[in-house]
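I am still learning, so can you show me any protein sequence you like together with the matching structure tokens, please?
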Amino acid sequence: MLRRDAAEQDINAALRALLPLTGYGVEVLDSHVRLTIDDSTQKAALLAERMRQGYALEEARRRQEQEREGTRLRLQRKREDTQRHEAHAREEDRLRREYELDALARRQARARADFLRDEILANPASARLYTLLERSAEHWPRLGGPPAGTSLPDLVCEVQQWQPQAQWVVVAHLLHDFATGLTKEGRKEFLTILAQAVKVHGDEKTARALLDAAGEQG
């Protein structure tokens, strides 16, 4: 009843649509309705309208808050998914780098082992030179010369003594092959005899070392 004029027009229009009305000997050709509203009804209608509008506003606010919360949750899930994806990618990258480093370390170890076996240990002179250089130069450059202060004549002389054709190298090979073919007791007896011969020539320290080795053979 807040829009009384509009209500009157609607009622009058509805009545005119029904005219003329005939009944009980009476014929109605025209009609007009006028509405009046007392104060209490007017106040009640205003209060009801305010309540309706307040409810509508509250409902709209609640929907907006739900939409904003839904948007916030979607964005949060999207950020979390992105963070998980980035963390997963970082972890995969770290594992890949570790795998590559491990593979590189294994290749370097195999290359060093092959180099020592095929190039160094196959030749006594190469082995001696490698030992001297490794021991004297902690940071010896790969492609440079020997460390500063190295006496090249002394180094050459030292290496020449370890050449495969050097007499003592040949003798060492013969003794090694001979001792390898003996039994454990035979090697012990051989080392004892060798120790006595060395002692006769005045090298008691080496003789004791040979006797210790003979004892280990037992």
